[in-house]
Write a structure and sequence with these properties.
Blueprint: E1 22-26, H1 28-31, H2 43-52, H3 58-72, E2 84-88
Antiparallel strand pairs: 1-2
């Protein structure tokens, strides 16, 4: 198998972050968590959960999001990977 290394990836626009900003990065496994009746957790619900805990430490936000997804899914086995990264911009 030959690897191609000539792929061009263009950077998007710079988005300056200010103190108090929160950056949330997740894989689709979080917002695509399904309830026992096949409803999706969804992006809006995921963002609402993050906003509810925005004053907490980043680790707590990650834990709360993951716990909420597990509860929403009825504690059934996960069917997809879940990765959650929270970056909080603090005052200098």
């Amino acid at each position: 198998m030959e690897l191609t290394t000539d792929i061009e990836i263009r950077a998007g626009p710079n988005t300056p972050l200010e103190p108090g900003d929160l950056l949330l990065l997740t894989t689709d496994g979080l917002h695509e968590t399904q309830s026992p009746d096949d409803e999706l957790l969804g992006v809006e619900r995921m963002l609402d959960l993050a906003a509810q805990h925005r004053d907490q430490p980043a680790r707590t936000i990650v834990d709360e999001l993951y716990a909420a997804s597990r509860m929403f899914g009825g504690r059934r086995p996960q069917s997809d990977d879940v990765t959650i990264v929270v970056v909080k911009v603090l005052d200098p």
